């Protein structure tokens, strides 16, 4: 029995810890306790199985491994982006965006649904936190949609799915953690995820469009009396055209002497400042040139868009690292909230408290994963996982599909931090053996986790929406009507079409890796393609050596000193030279004798290493 346990300790440990996690025990403490418990078991049975490489002094490595987490610059981006998102969410930026974009798309059928998708994308690009996006949009958009007779299932599904965009749209926290665990650049992960994220947003909008064609009564247009900003789309288009013109002119004239990426940044900044300044002047100086709609759209939309460019643009252009971009984003969010006069001491305290809790949560999970990993690798659990995955049929595609199913199922029960810290390090060796690009692999896992957030009955996004959706009849203050509650089954049904889109997107990324691997064209160098050519030490083909007196005569491990030939060995004073390495060098044109054969050549004198060298 003990022999059976010793030889199967890795699967026993993995299944036991996973079972405890699925039951609901705290993740960080379950991982740490499981790692320590099986460490003791592994040490006691290590004399039975040679595969177990655990011994008591190995425990002394834990302090250094845990302290090493604090040196991780990549994970420092998590509190920055979290703080930025919380400040923007508490300064009611989502409310302003939903109201303005809802007015812009109001005359169109499904306008509020389009607004929810686009605002979800904007919030994802600024907050990066699913809970904040879903709750903010649910509190603001859902009552308005129900007020104007949107189908409750369609409305709730749109809001829940749009909130999960924070999982895949940069600067997603999922992508930061994924890049850290895969050992890849966060900037490359952001660039690789950009096209799939844009395709998902477009697919959501296409679904809304199809619903407005098939079921127009599910998503009616806003009545004219609710469009408080009126018309005036033409002035908005003209202002945007003027901003593009300013960008082109400044790019080719004012900033033409700067480097390409710096020119782009300053030209885009100039165009944005022009449009925003003109809109502010039109409002406060009563110029009357722009319509109220154009004025409001520019004033509300441009600051968060500028913040997104400040964060993601500088990262994509290589001007800032993700950690630096997060720091700039957090500073920009504070400035934005201060300018709008919505920054108070209580809001700042709430954001700092929530950021501290999330950062501590991540750190404790990572500490538990380190303790678990030391024991699991010590019993060759990584090799067991790798062999298990490599035996799957279908090669690379079979591996990706199997991992997609496994991670999807685990995503219904575990948070993405837990999956990233536990599962991803175990999947990487098999992926590398199959030659899978790890950025591509990470984006597939990110889309997969986004899908699991939507899947009934355990999707976290559905739980967030359920917590703020009305569960009983309620009276709408604007219309004065009593509206029915939102049932849980309606939320689940509304999420199904978006889940199908997510699965199709996973298959699309697997079938067309170029949607992700285009990041390699941005100047990233493959370390495996670097060829290092070491110049010769001495004179070769008439070329001078390193300039040492007399040269090094080719290889320093050639013929012994004092012998004729093409190159002399390295001569040290008083040691009589170094003995040759390998076969003796060619002497007087004769080839060296084979091993074991007699030779008439005298053996070179060997230095007496028992005496100290003399420097006479």
Provide the descriptors you would attach to this structure in a database record.
single chain; about 625 residues; mainly alpha; 2 domains; 24 helices; about 60% helix; about 0% strand; transmembrane helix; cell membrane; transmembrane; TRAP_DctM; transmembrane transporter activity
Can you offer a commentary on this structure?
The protein is mainly alpha-helical and 616 residues long. The chain folds into two domains: 1-73, no CATH class; 74-232 and 291-520, no CATH class. Helix content is 61%, strand content 1%. The longest helix has 34 residues, at 345-378. Mean pLDDT is 78; it is low at 523-527 and 537-599. Residues 543-616 are annotated as: Disordered. Its main location: membrane. Pfam families: DctM.
Summarize this entry quickly.
The protein is mainly alpha-helical and 616 residues long.
**What is the CA-based Rg, rounded?**
32 Å
From the N-terminal CA to the C-terminal CA, the straight-line distance is 72 Å
Roughly what is the average pLDDT, rounded to an integer? 78
Low-confidence stretches: 523-527, 537-599
Q: How many alpha or pi helices?
A: 24
Transmembrane segments: 12-45, 66-88, 112-142, 154-178, 190-214, 226-249, 264-285, 297-317, 360-379, 399-426, 438-465, 495-516
Pfam families: DctM (PF06808)
Keywords: Cell inner membrane, Cell membrane, Membrane, Transmembrane, Transmembrane helix, Transport
Membrane topology: Multi-pass membrane protein
